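Example (one chain per record):
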Amino acid sequence: MFKPTPSLQKMLRRLPLSTKQAGKEYYKGNRVGKLGTITRYGNFTPDWSLIRTFVYPELGTKNCELTPFVAEDMEKTRQTSEGFETYPKRLTGKDYLDAWKLSGGYDLVENDAYATGTNMPEPFEEKAGEKS
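Predicted structure:
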């Protein structure tokens, strides 16, 4: 099998182990903490003094006296090289249509060629080609 060069072997020993590098009995965990014990028969018994529990407000979230860390009406800002700036307003469909009408857009065709009065084009029919 291939081995890393001797200079890299010292570096690889200091890297954190994974389950693929160690034996099949190795279990690293996921920073969860100890929540109980495993009996000698292999069963898990939880220790309820170590398990985190979150209490839901009695009056519900709408009528709760707790508030978020940031006010809901505060504008969202981002940091730039000059300082902080607010995000630009999002363009909604109504804003787009208003800008389109101001720039000369129209809903109905003002031409008398169309009997329906909409801005649909006339159907195009291809002429038969002549063989030479």
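Caption: Residues 26-58 form one domain.
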